[in-house]
Amino acid sequence: MKRYNITVNGTAYDVEVEEISSDAPAAAPAPARKAAPAPAPAAAKPSAGAGTPIKAPMPGNILDVKVSVGDSVQTGQVLIVLEALKMENDVVSTATGKVTSVLVKKGDTVNSDDVLVTVG
Fold first, then answer.
1. What is the pLDDT along the chain (120 residues), one digit of tens a residue?
2. Comparing C-alpha atoms, which of 71, 65, 76 is closest to residue 103?
3. What is the CATH number assigned to the segment(s) 52-119?
4. Hey, how many other C-beta atoms are within 10 angstroms of the C-beta on 67?
5. What are the domain boundaries of the chain?
6. How far apart (Å, rounded) are the C-alpha atoms in residues 13 and 16?
7. For residue 119, with 0-12 CB atoms within 10 Å meaning exposed, 13-18 middle and 19 or more buried, which class applies?
């Protein structure tokens, strides 16, 4: 057996590979697999409006969007409810003004630093 470290998409795996001598009988070839269908192209994300971007503080799922484009908001006002680690987290406005864009909807999954809302 030979051991190798292989990295796939940034994740390291320790694998063992059995070396077969040339006089050993060859294993039967694996049955052919059907090619998987090509993934559908991702839908274009809405573009951010002018103003202060309000970003996701952590990855999670959007439980509620409390504002829409054109709403007036104050600093500290709850804009989005984000579920992360089975906890509901309020994402609040860091600026006072009008909402110029809402880039997420209920049920969306977001990553850290994704822009959720823009306040101008």
1. 788 888 887 788 788 887 777 665 666 666 656 656 656 555 555 566 678 999 999 999 999 999 999 999 999 999 999 999 889 999 999 999 999 999 999 999 999 999 999 998
2. 65
3. 2.40.50.100
4. 19
5. 52-119
6. 10
7. buried
